[in-house]
């Protein structure tokens, strides 16, 4: 790993030299939302029940009973909330995970759906009456998880995922260098927009299905952009591989880390700009080294050939040339990049 040399002390693992070569030319950085810009540890903030009959504990019980079988961070948050309220879960049959949308299942004879607007629409569940409440949540950067039982919407579980503390500074640093940013997420457009506004990201690709993230990167590349993709999830791996530079969050999934060219060990988004600056600095240093190495030889070889250079001094000069190149490279370690 190249990173052992230039990045490791900074918590930046660089897997191949080509990553550095490409890193200096990036003009747009596309960032995944969940787990990359946000902590990726969402928490339930509120549970609303509709239709008089069931209370909010029942809404949470149904949602958590299904989410017990889901690996999604939203599902984990709902499960945690139910545990905290000591809600006993029900047995579930016919569990089904719908990627990028939610989950389905059955408790006894009641068919259940837990997920986003798209999933409800797909299943023909009427949500019009709840739209004002859903939109209010989304405007506050929260994700509304809708719960339907027996083909009727019975409640909403609101979930919030805090922004990473340095997310805003990271975006500002990229913009200051003239690098554009965009956010990509499977989450709904309103929540995504609210989060992007908090940190100053102008372009948002929302409601992108897991399999379409790479396609979005390809589309940008087709317009001549040189794209870095930053992500952490299983569903980010194809986009990480497709991008000119894949930057994986070290606290993310193994699959993402495997697919990235660069790994940010602690997952701080500020490290993105550091990695890009490191790429440029490394290349500038390589060019300086080549210049001085050639300069020495071009100047000294003719002198030696013509007998103007004592062989002992020539040997010394050769060694000094190597030391200067290594010394110049070692300066990279001490450069402050952020
Ligand atoms: P991302 O990783 O960008 O948040 P996903 O594709 O995993 O996107 O999910 C997109 C959206 O699908 C979520 O914001 C949520 O609305 C819905 N969703 C996915 N999985 C679940 C789940 N297990 N429970 C509830 N909603 C879900
Ligand atoms: Mg993610």
Question: What does this protein structure show overall?
Answer:
There is one protein chain. Helices cover 47% and strands 21% of the residues. The protein is an alpha/beta fold. The chain folds into 3 domains: 6-40 and 163-276, 3-Layer(aba) Sandwich (Rossmann fold); 43-160, 3-Layer(aba) Sandwich (Calcium-transporting ATPase, cytoplasmic domain N); 279-334. The strands form 2 sheets. Strands 1-13-12-11-2-9-10 form a 7-stranded mixed β-sheet, with helices on both faces. Strand 11, helix 11 and strand 12 form a beta-alpha-beta unit. It starts with a helix and ends with a helix. Magnesium ion binds at residues 32, 34-36, 231-233.
Architecture blueprint of SSEs:
Elements: H1 3-6, E1 12-14, H2 17-23, E2 28-32, H3 33-37, E3 43-49, H4 56-67, H5 73-84, E4 93-98, E5 102-107, E6 110-115, H6 117-122, H7 131-139, E7 143-149, E8 152-160, H8 167-176, E9 180-184, H9 189-199, E10 203-205, H10 213-222, E11 227-231, H11 237-242, E12 245-249, H12 254-259, E13 262-264, H13 270-305, H14 311-334
Parallel strand pairs: 2-9, 2-11, 9-10, 11-12, 12-13
Antiparallel strand pairs: 1-13, 3-8, 4-5, 5-6, 6-7, 7-8
Helix pairs in contact: 2-13, 4-5, 7-9, 8-13, 13-14
The structure holds adenosine-5'-diphosphate and magnesium ion (MG).
């Amino acid at each position: 790993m190249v990173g052992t040399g230039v990045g490791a002390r900074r918590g930046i693992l660089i897997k191949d030299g080509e990553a550095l070569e490409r890193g200096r030319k990036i003009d747009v950085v596309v960032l995944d939302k969940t787990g990359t810009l946000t902590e990726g540890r969402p928490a339930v903030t509120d549970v609303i029940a509709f239709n008089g009959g069931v209370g909010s504990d029942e809404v949470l019980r149904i949602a958590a009973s299904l989410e017990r079988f889901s690996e999604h961070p939203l599902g984990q948050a709902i499960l945690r909330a139910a545990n905290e309220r000591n809600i006993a879960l029900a047995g579930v049959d016919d569990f089904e995970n719908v990627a990028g949308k939610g989950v389905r299942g059955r408790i006894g004879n009641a068919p259940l759906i837990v997920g986003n607007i798209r999933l409800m629409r797909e299943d023909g569940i009427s949500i019009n009456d709840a739209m004002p409440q859903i939109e209010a949540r989304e405007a506050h950067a929260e994700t509304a998880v809708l719960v339907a039982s027996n083909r009727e919407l019975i409640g909403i579980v609101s979930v919030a995922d805090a922004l990473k503390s340095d997310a805003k500074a990271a975006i500002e640093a990229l913009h200051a260098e003239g690098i554009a940013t965009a956010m990509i997420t499977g989450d709904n457009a309103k929540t995504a927009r609210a989060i992007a506004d908090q940190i100053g990201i102008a372009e948002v690709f929302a409601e992108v299905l897991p399999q379409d993230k790479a396609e979005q990167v390809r589309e940008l590349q087709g317009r001549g952009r040189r794209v870095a993709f930053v992500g952490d999830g299983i569903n980010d791996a194809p986009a990480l591989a497709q991008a000119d530079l894949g930057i994986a969050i070290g606290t993310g999934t193994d699959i993402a880390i495997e697919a990235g060219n660069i790994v940010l060990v602690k997952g701080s988004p500020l490290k993105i700009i550091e990695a890009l600056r490191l790429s440029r600095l490394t290349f500038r240093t390589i060019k300086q080294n080549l210049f001085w190495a050639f300069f020495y030889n071009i100047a000294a070889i003719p002198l030696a050939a013509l007998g103007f250079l004592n062989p002992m001094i020539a040997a010394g000069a050769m060694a000094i040339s190597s030391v200067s190149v290594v010394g110049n490279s070692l300066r990279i370690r001490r450069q402050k990049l952020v």
